[in-house]
Amino acid sequence: MAPALFSPTRQMSKRPSRFVKAVNRSQQFSRENSLLMSDEDHGDSIAGSDIFSPEGSKIIVPYGGEESMYGDSMYMGDDDFEEGIAIDDEQLGPEVDSFARHVDIHRRNPEQDAEETAMGLIDGFRKDTYDHFLDARRRRETYLGEDETQILELIGETDFYKMEGETWELIARLVPGRNTKLSDTGREVSHFESNEILRRQLLKESSVFRELNIIRDWLRSIAPEPDIPNEVAEDEEAMASGHMYTLHALKKYKQDNMDPSDFVRKGLNARFEYPERGIPSPDDVNRLIITEMDPDGPLRQDRTVPSGDNYYDKTFYRVLWGYIRKGDFRKAAEWCRKCDQAWRAPVVLGGRDAVDWIIDEEVAEDDMYDASPEQGPSGNRRRQLWRRACYALAKRVSRVPGDTWEKAAYGLLAGDIDTSLPACENWHDHVYAQVNALIEAHYERYLHQHGRISNSTQRLNIPDAVATLGTKNVMAKIVDSLSRPDDHRFLATAQATALRAVQGAIISDRIPKLVNIFAEQLREFRIDPGYEPDKDTNTPVDCTDWKLLRVITHIIIILQHLGQWPTEGKDADAAQEVIAGYIRMLAAAEKYKIIPLYAARLGHDRCVEVMGEVLLHVVNENTRDDMMRSFRSYGLDIKATLRRTMENAFVQTEELYKHDELPIQILSEFSLSWQDRRKVQPEDEKLIRTAEWMLVVPDMKDDLMHAGVMMFKRFYLTGRLDAGRTLAERIRSRDLVPDDPEDFEDLTEEAKRIASVYIEYELLIEGLDALDDWNKLLAQGTAAKREGGTAAIRRSKLKDDMLTAYASAESKLGLLVNSWLVQCQHHPDAEQVKHIRNTYVPDITMALHGVHLAAGHHLNKSNYSKCLDLAVLVARPSSGVADTFIATGRMAKYVDELANVSLMCLQSAKGITSEPTLVKPGQEASVAIWNVKPLAIRQQQ
């Protein structure tokens, strides 16, 4: 599983990212200043200090500055994480894929109207969220286990999807219309037309009034149905019977105290008179109850009802408030009638302005009104007077047990904040109470402006929320007043609190501020992996909340479609940071196929930066092919991205090569079989795998060879021969360099240079393979000679195979000793080349010496002389081979080897022949180098 690019779910180091130091150019090779360093000295190590760039071996600063080819990059390498844990689908939720599908569908229709596109996206998000909510609720309801953690997770998931769906509903209602151009002036409304015409006109003229109404309608739509208790059969009967205990107490008192003859004497108008002092409550003799059952009885008599009727009062007013809060006035009226308080129904329905089907043609067909020619006018022609009456009811003193709910219900009808808030149970209720009051205040002022409120009505007191809350940034003030960190009225889960913050930003038109907060958290987290956003008390949002990150990302996309998001500046940069964070989250969850869709929404430089990180973690070949197709489909810059990916791979793995120690004698590694040598390490595989991306992109062979040279240098400087062999096998020079000499001549001089260098580095692997083949056959020859003597080798096919292997090893190793990397000693990376030659050339020379020696022993003694011919090459000043022996302090060992082979040559010279080819069958040949004649004799001949 690929390590997560951005996964705060794991423990991370508190250490910030370390900047990479450039190599000291004056560095010289010596045993004291070599790759065999202590940990304290690794900062200036040569191995791994080359950062890939198209300019070749130029050392660049990977995190920005004058030398960086990519500008400001803040990439965090894998070494910044203590462990890599990917995000799974359960953390992200199934909506990740479905949301991407909607984004992609609407991307394919560029001709579509911007608002239509945005609404299509919103509808898709809203529908998918609702489907996920239903699924989560089904799983919660069908779960039969007793695991409390699982139960809480299911409840939390259900609540989140419900609230997210409400958020998309708010966006659908409010956000698209913010670009709507409102009319400056309305038509003249006649005296006979309804106030409703003026209300509609105000909606067209005032964006504030329009948005307040939209917010109120949304808050009504998401309000839950009032909780009507029906646990036992008596509940419904109690609500339909009204003050049942009060009526029973009055009836019993009347039966016990009335005089039947008095009723006979008075006739039909007889009336029982309760004592002026009142009657005691049946459950508390020290408390008096009402004796008059009209609605104003408790207020007028300053008495209450028996405690048995408390349930009725509390339930009635709480449910009534719930219906009014939800804006369902018809059900509120039905509830009043059902509970034997039909007189309250007209009060509840009094909030509708009067309309006349004949005069008010603009509104007569509205579903809110039931006007018709047969019915005549409908609604309240004295609505502002009715509003003041509701306010008076809300402010009066009451002893009813449901007093809080009763006052709040009338307070909502009147548009009063103070009497409404005590009944508010959650964040949405508080917002509703204040928004509702603002609407009533704006409407009141507009009617007054048009002379629609009589002087007598104006003399009655009524609250003005506009005067209380002001006219500027009102919604921001409301949201902020309900979002203080020390306010514990609305305790909820972290996700619910965060979604409230999102809704508050949408309501107050401060989405850019929210996005900037989120972007800043993402930046902080990338700089300091130990940063904990959830402990930041300045804001309830948390960039590690994957679902919230998805919501905010898609809100940005919607606003971009609507043209409501800037393309330049701070807000544009913040949006890019959030989308980039979402992409990294997708990569951590291995959602690679949908990543290019979102990367296409980034600017070119940011896209290259982010995708340069993402591609490092793609290991599956099929996924790689899909990504390349997506790059082309979405018009992403493949070449620049792959260059950045390669650079990131070098930066990430650099430290691992600096700490690697190289054996003093690399020959000890040569003597091992490939199976016993050190295997390819993860960092080696990352570099090679990253470079392979370029194989499938045309016109990137030059870049690939640049990267290959850098990798060869790293592998050779740290003795990772198997990694070098893997690189040579998977990225072969013959796949990069034209076979036809004419095509090769068409390359630029720089391309020719880097191609020749790549081939040079590849030659080492070819030489080592040839040496391996020779060693394998040599082992077989030694075994055959042990069993049957030298003749056994000569008579078998093994000798032919050994001759072929010897010729190959002699040719390839000889080429390495004679000229390997000599031409590169004047390149910008000459210091590293010098290290590599000093490291490998002595051992290659010793290896070739051993090949000649073994060939003389097993094949023909004349091969001994080639050891001395090799010594001549080593001693030649132009070859530079002797310098490598001296630099590594190994010349003495090589001289000892030459002394030994010289003795062997002397011992093998039993007869002198001028040429080995003249040796007769069964006769040992002499060594040509010892067939020395004086100069005078040679002249006579």
- The gross shape turns out to be elongated
Query: How many DSSP-defined strands?
Result: 2
- Count, helices: 40
Taken as a percent bin, the fraction of beta residues is under 5%
- The average pLDDT is 80
Largest sheet: 2 strands, antiparallel
- Radius of gyration equals 45 Å
Description of the structure:
The chain is mostly helical and 941 residues long. Among the domains are: 89-174 and 492-589, no CATH class; 732-908, Delta-Endotoxin, domain 1 (Up-down Bundle), CATH 1.20.190; 912-941, no CATH class. The chain contains 40 helices and two strands. Helix 14 packs antiparallel against helix 15 (403-414) and helix 25 (604-614) crosses helix 27 (638-658). The longest helix is centred in the C-terminal third of the chain and has 40 residues, at 749-788. The chain is elongated. The chain starts with 88 loop residues before the first helix and ends with a helix. The relative contact order is 0.08.
List keywords for this structure.
disordered C terminus; two-stranded antiparallel ribbon; 1% strand; elongated; nucleus; transport; disordered N terminus; 40 helices; mainly alpha; 2 strands; protein transport; 941 residues; Delta-Endotoxin, domain 1
Write a concise synopsis of the structure shown:
Part of the nuclear pore complex (NPC). By secondary structure, this protein is mainly alpha-helical.
